[in-house]
Amino acid sequence: MGADTPRELExxxxxxxxxxxxxxxxxxxxxxxLNAWLDTVIDEAVPVASPQAWLLxxxxxxxxxxxxxxxVRAGITALRGxxxxxxxxxxxxxxxxxxxxxxxxxxxxxxxxxVIMRCxxxxxxADGFVYLLDVDTCAGLATVxxxxxxxxxxxxxxxxxxxxxxxxxxxxxxxxxxxxxxxLLPTSGLHEPGVMGEETRRQMDxxxxxxxxADDLTQVLSASGRPLPERPRWLQEAQExxxxxxxxxxxxxxxxxxxxxxxxxxxVAALAEAWLEGSLPEARLSCSAHRIRILQxxxxxxxxxxxxxxxxxxxxPQWVRWCAESTGLNPELTARAMAAAERHPAEWRPGESRExxxxxxxx
Length: 363
Known about the structure:
The protein has 14 helices and four strands. The chain is an alpha+beta fold. It has three domains: 89 residues, no CATH class; 139 residues, no CATH class; 104 residues. The protein has a four-stranded antiparallel sheet with strand order 1-2-3-4, with helices on both faces. α11 crosses α13. The longest helix is centred in the N-terminal third of the chain and has 22 residues. The model has no long low-confidence stretch (mean pLDDT 91).
């Protein structure tokens, strides 16, 4: 009720819905159909016919995925004339739209990305605000770990660097390849985004808004003659598979050049397959400590009792050293990666990779 601008109403609505969703994650483990839930919220708000319901519907219209946005616009039409119309800016709340200007930052490890899109707001027609997606790819498929609206590009970049830490200290904004953008954006084209149960409150605040902004950006880019690929690369790879042999061969060549002791062929193949599965082409050999812990957690869960656990654990430091040298990783970040790789399998405990990835990105 205290919102004075479209941005304030959008943010208040995102936090209101996000609070309910985050509470639900703490109570339930399965059975989520969050777009259907938002449809129900819309249906139940319309008959209330109150100023609060009127504002809520306009706030939802600004951040809802495209299907729910059409639904809520119909609800607004049905309610029009039955409640006070509110301030003049309220009617323009759902006109927030990406301009098509988008840039990318990437951390030194190569597994963490910032996608920053400029969006036109009705009350900031000249330059708008920017919407930042903080995307982690350590587990293969891109995961939005945080998001938020910022006054401008410089502020968004600074917030992302502070959140990621040392690995992002020197990251600068640059143009984004459309194939990579298609892999990073949480669009609704293929599936409704799911939840794992470990999401932060801020992730749930942005659950709907990130999809809406990604879908809008996709449409704007297509309309300007820059369409994203219809089939993202991760889906193509999931359907067709990938060839790990070139990576295995390159590792053996590197290992032999160093005069290191021979390694077990079966262990190399098993590690390569686990390491590369689902990875972005740009991040095949990226070796952040977070990615290493995720791999170790997967092995601890899915390889229990497998005789290859020991050989793969012994091989992992050599593999990470090869990745670090291949990607030109600096000594300090290499040391962090090596420390994770050298842990004994007894330390590979499920759940440890879900530790917070950095400080929250301020709104």
